[in-house]
Design brief:
This protein is mainly β. It has one domain (5-163). It is 12% helix and 41% strand. The protein is built from two helices and eleven strands. The protein has helices at residues 137-150, 157-163, and strands spanning 5-11, 15-21, 27-32, 35-42, 62-66, 69-75, 87-91, 94-100, 106-110, 113-120, 126-130. Strand 3 and strand 4 (35-42) form a beta hairpin.
């Protein structure tokens, strides 16, 4: 694994996190002193989709670990409806959802409890609003990893109707 892109993020709750990516867009790694390491990886040999930062939304071509423990990742297809951009994952019996909200952010929930909303702008700058005093270090690492791997903006049916579909996956 050759990680060439590095971005430092200073999170208000979890301090400095490092987000690393590969030139091939097949790996996202999030780490920090106060958070577990999350690695999200696209399978070798899978042709990357140019519309998805990690290169695919197909679960069979993705693996994710949190401090070495495998997570079951289930991304939606990311098509015409905003709901199709959801990502679900299960880690050691804990259920996470990363779903679009009404403000074009992605909402992270853990076992049904709202944890935070994540936004990643075009310059690669993260904005996170922590909604829960019960947030845990793994929540932060997972939220940042999913944001970097899949992005945080969605294209709904109304945008397609107004602007056309030539730039859709």
């Amino acid at each position: 694994m050759h990680l060439t892109g590095t971005r430092a993020v200073d999170d208000e709750h979890y301090g400095e996190l490092t987000i690393r990516t590969s030139d091939e867009r097949d790996v996202v790694e999030v780490s920090g002193v106060r958070v577990p390491t999350v690695v999200l990886r696209r399978s070798p040999g899978v042709e990357p989709n140019k519309f998805v930062p990690i290169g695919t939304r197909k679960a069979r071509h993705l693996t994710m670990t949190v401090n070495g423990t495998g997570a079951e990742l289930r991304p939606g297809p990311g098509r015409l409806t905003r709901r199709s951009y959801r990502i679900e994952l299960t880690l050691a019996g804990t259920h996470y959802k990363f779903t679009p909200d009404i403000n074009d952010d992605m909402l992270l929930t853990r076992d049904g409890t709202k944890i935070a909303s994540f936004t990643l702008n075009d310059d690669g700058e993260f904005f996170v609003h922590w909604d829960s005093d019960g947030a845990q270090p793994a929540d932060a690492a997972i939220g940042y990893a999913l944001s970097a791997a899949f992005g945080t903006s969605t294209t709904g049916i109304f945008t397609v109707l107004l602007h056309g579909s030539e730039n859709l996956p």
